[in-house]
Amino acid sequence: MGSKKSIALITGASSGIGLEFAKPLDSDPRIDEIWLCARRENRLQNLAQSLNKSTKIIAGDVTDSQWQDRLQQELEQNNVQIHTLINSAGMGKKGTVEEIGRDNNAYMIDLNCRALTVVCSICIPYMSTGGRILNLASVAAFLPQPKFAVYAATKSYVLSYSRALHKELKSKQITVTAVCPNPMETEFFQHTGKPQEISSIKRIGLEQVEKVAAQALRRSERKKDISLLSISAKFVRIVSRILPHPFILWIEEKIGLI
Ligand SMILES: NC(=O)c1ccc[n+]([C@@H]2O[C@H](COP(=O)([O-])OP(=O)(O)OC[C@H]3O[C@@H](n4cnc5c(N)ncnc54)[C@H](OP(=O)(O)O)[C@@H]3O)[C@@H](O)[C@H]2O)c1
What we know:
By secondary structure, this protein is α/β, with parallel strands linked by helices. The protein is about 50% helix and about 15% strand. The protein has 9 helices and 7 strands. The protein has helices at about 15-25, 40-50, 65-75, 95-125, 150-170, 195-205, 210-220, 230-240, 245-255, and strands spanning about 5-10, 35, 55, 80-85, 130-135, 175-180, 225. The chain has a 7-stranded parallel beta sheet with strand order 3-2-1-4-5-6-7, sandwiched between helices. Strand 1, helix 1 and strand 2 (about 35) form a beta-alpha-beta unit. Helix 3 (about 65-75) runs parallel beside helix 4. The longest helix is centred in the middle third of the chain and has 27 residues, at about 95-125. The site of NADP nicotinamide-adenine-dinucleotide phosphate has 30 residues, from helix 1.
């Protein structure tokens, strides 16, 4: 058997920050091939055509166990080693838990937590020294968020899981970084159920997708388990560690944030 092909695998590559990550990975000399995953195959084909490196498209729903089995088979059948895994597939519905309802609440957990965990479990055996995992959490991970409760809780899971996994994989010199962006202008807001909210968030300030991706890759290179970009995100993190959460929620309510 010849030397293994070094690959990057991106879930959520058809849009937003997942798509953005493909660009710097395309110019990373440590990577031979990029595997692109999402449901919209035509989008992945367009992205593949724009990249210089060879690509493999594994289209499908990451929450579907048949897609997960297929990913496992592709890794088994191809002589590859994963250098970079980016877990970006995710979504969030806004509203009260009651408004969002049983199916959408469960789906957010299936996609943001369960599928991400399964993809990591499938991929880790194909990673070795120098490998890196970047999991998309959010600044929402730091605090409970009424009217975004399940989404924020899923991102707290991603943060906690990623930091623990980082420790577990340290002896293998594999880095796991939880990426915690503020809101970014992507298709994310088309799926929240409240797309109009983007205009009020724009006034507070959005993070730029390419800057979030570049910072996340820098933090991963420095073997850090968390990546934050803006001062405001760092401020939220510090406040959430100092002040009691019920008090922060009380202030948020008083100033009309929730
Ligand atoms: N935008 C923000 O404000 C923001 C802030 C903090 C964190 N994040 C996190 O960043 C990540 C990426 O979000 P984004 O802003 O880039 O949003 P986006 O533009 O909507 O991208 C989401 C990606 O996930 C894929 N996806 C969704 N459901 C999937 C499924 N069941 N199976 C496979 N792929 C699926 C989508 O592709 P298909 O539809 O083609 O399947 C798309 O490529 C998410 O985890 C999100 O929670 C976003």
